[in-house]
Amino acid sequence: MSATKKIQSYNFGIIAEFIAIIFLRLKGYKILKRRYKTFVGEVDIIARKGRAIIAVEVKARKKVVQKNGFLIDEVLSENQKRRIKRAIMFFMAANFKKYYNHSIRFDLIVISPYKIPLHLLGFWE
């Protein structure tokens, strides 16, 4: 992949995360962190709704994606899921007093051109 394509892909991902944040806010989620990075992993968006802390992975797809048009393994590798899980556990430990009575959920939002974002709640465990 050329440097130009990498930059375009990176920028498309940043825009997709921004769209996902707006989408989540419209659905009543409170955004706690964006692009949360630690030495153990990274979470695109950490949100809260009610007594749930949600780790949201955002995937940008240039082609329109249908709900059943992809498999879990095609979207997130086991290594990616482990790193996201470790990062959200790190966040929960760092904020234990504030969120000790909250559950954790892992969601996926797929952003495709000219489509409403596809929000899959509890996408993986």
Report the sheet with the most strands, covering strand number, pairing sense and barrel closure.
Answer: 5 strands, mixed
Query: Do you know the CATH architecture?
Result: 3-Layer(aba) Sandwich
Count of DSSP H/I helices = 4
Radius of gyration: 15 Å
The CATH topology is given as Trna Endonuclease, Chain: A, domain 1
What count of domains describes the coordinates? 1
Q: What is the CATH domain class?
A: Alpha Beta
Strand content: 25-35%
**Structure classification:** alpha+beta
Shape: globular
Task: Name the poorly predicted regions.
Answer: none
Order of SSEs:
HEEEHHHEE
Mind explaining what this structure looks like?
The protein is an alpha+beta fold and 125 residues long. The protein has one domain (3-124): Trna Endonuclease, Chain: A, domain 1, CATH 3.40.1350.10. It is built from four helices and five strands, in the order H-E-E-E-H-H-H-E-E. Strands 1-2-3-4-5 form a five-stranded mixed β-sheet, sandwiched between helices. Strand 4 (103-111) and strand 5 (118-124) form a beta hairpin. The longest helix has 24 residues, at 3-26. The protein is globular, with a radius of gyration of 15 Å.
